[in-house]
Amino acid sequence: MSSVTPQPETNAIVACTVSRDVQNFDLLIEDMETTMGESWGDLGFAEALAFFNQPEAEALEFIALAIDGNDEDNLVLMGEIISQAKSRDIKVILIAEDVTPASLHQLLRQGADEFVPYPLPEQELQAAIERVTTPAPGPQAAKPNPHQLQSGSAREGAVIVCQGLAGGSGSTTLAVNLAWELAELSEHDKPSVCLLDFDLQHGSVATYLDLPRREIVMEMLGQIDDMDAEMFGQALLSFQDKLQVLTAPSEMVPLDFFSAEDIERIVGMARSHFDFVVIDLPRTLVQWSESVLNMAHVYFALIELDMRSAQNALRMKRALQSEELPFEKLRFTLNRAPKFTDLSGKSRVKRMAESLGISIDLQLPDGGKPVTQCCDHGLPLAISAPKNPLRKEIAKLALSLHELGQQDVAAA
């Protein structure tokens, strides 16, 4: 690791980590050494503010501000570091571990350019550095048209995964409505969104959006090795010219029809053309489940307040931990959660989380019969029942995801 001050003139410091103690972020040290060689240094929070005023700071291109839950009491100082960096045209990559979404939102609003979760996903820091150090395209740069996918697109969309841990827990309902809410977020700069139905046997995304199941989907899935942007684009269906959808195939096929490489290729293709890629997974764990988990920026695991959900959540926890997979990526989402006034229900939720040793990060209200009716009619809740409490909560979730970074969302 490089020191900030005693560097020879031929090796200017172009990047710095800023943290309470960089030794708490050993993976960050490794990635910085791999990416930056000897041209980086590390600073404490107070040291960073002083260093910005030194002549040596003129060569700085970016800082990696690394924080954890213990730093949330110093958000004012964090914000000042970001503001001072931005005033000197220094990019800021925010790296956070165990930090609440509200704190992340506050720091991103104050000017942080990129967000990367810690522990660092493989090559994610390098990708973030490339994004902040690459000059922005000119105002005449054309925005890729999702109806006519071009192989030269260079997006890196965020991957949002929904998986139900018990039958009827609402995974597809959340995936469909979240994708639609993301596509409808802003009138002026609407994010491009792709919804992928990976439940090859019982996928219902086509039903929930009243879309036909076409043979071309099966043809594309059978030729993934030869798939290019044109083939992928032809397999997509447009819902009201705002949301692009890859439906499940028309015929029921085995879940092991995909290989891990096939899944990575499909998701990678979608990420390169869309700001958000929402994936609806089957409940079954298969050989490519690990690939989806590793690629996911946000992974919603839907449960209900019943015994089967509790048992399945415990099985999932044991399965992932036994294989040393990133179980901490799962954001347990309680569907049909008790109302605010239901104190007994709230107590049951708390006991369930404690007994399973999990954190229930999101609670979705019971939308009642209108939810089923919207699904049967092939319309999102925002169109058919805009005042439904479930719709309102999903809209809030979409807004928080969008505000945490339009292309690389990793927290919610």
Please give a structural write-up.
It is a single chain. This protein has 412 residues and is α/β, with parallel strands linked by helices. It contains 16 helices and 13 strands. Strands 8-9-7-10-6-11-12-13 form an eight-stranded mixed β-sheet, sandwiched between helices. A five-stranded parallel β-sheet has the order 2-1-3-4-5, sandwiched between helices. Helix 12 links the parallel strand 11 and strand 12. Helix 2 runs parallel beside helix 3, helix 6 (171-183) crosses helix 16 and helix 10 (260-271) runs parallel beside helix 11 (289-295). The radius of gyration is 22 Å and the shape is globular. It starts with 14 loop residues before the first strand and ends in a 9-residue tail after the last helix. The model is unreliable at 2-10, 137-147 and 406-412 (pLDDT under 50).
Report the principal-axis shape.
globular
Order of helices and strands: EHEHEHEHEHEHEHHHEEHEHEHEHEHHH
Q: Major beta sheet, specifics?
A: 8 strands, mixed
How far apart are the first and last residues' alpha carbons, in Å? 32 Å
Strand content: 15-25%
Overall SS class: alpha/beta
What average pLDDT do the residues reach? 85
Radius of gyration of CA atoms, rounded to a whole number: 22 Å
Q: Give the spatial strand order of the biggest sheet.
A: 8-9-7-10-6-11-12-13
